[in-house]
Design brief:
Elements: H1 2-6, E1 15-21, E2 27-33, H2 35-44, E3 48-51, E4 56-59, E5 68-75, E6 81-88, E7 103-105, E8 112-114, H3 122-125
Length: about 130
């Protein structure tokens, strides 16, 4: 896959992947991919990441069923990040919110407000 040679990987062999809803452009989450995760994502049409904490590949939704079906993949100008537009099933965030970006930071940086709506019970799923 030619795309693999066009990317600039960090010292751990990873690139950042920004995941965005293909219908409303909401940013859902950020993950990391190595070459194997990119290959699997492109060949299956389901988003696959490299888990830095578990040190293994994981397909989004393999436990929860909250899958991400790939609509498109783009490379940024520096080649060090991917933008993956997806059709999100249920939610992207493991805490129960649709997006991982459900907390808004105050202008003084002293507090956060929850701006997203919790759509599932994480304890019941995980």
């Amino acid at each position: 896959m030619k795309i693999l040679s066009e990317l600039k990987y960090d010292n751990y062999g990873l690139v950042t992947a920004v995941i965005q809803d293909c219908t409303n452009n909401e940013v859902l989450m950020v993950g990391y991919m190595n070459t194997e995760a990119i290959k699997q994502t492109l060949s299956t049409g389901r988003v696959c990441f490299w888990s830095r904490s578990r040190q293994k590949l994981w397909i989004k939704g393999e436990t929860s069923g909250h899958t991400q079906e790939v609509a498109s993949v783009a490379i940024d100008c520096d080649g060090d990040a991917l933008l993956i537009k997806v059709e999100q099933k249920v939610a992207a965030c493991h805490t129960g919110y649709r997006s991982c970006f459900f907390r808004e930071v105050s202008s003084d940086g002293e507090s956060t407000d929850v701006t997203g709506e919790k759509i599932f019970d994480a304890d019941a799923v995980y």
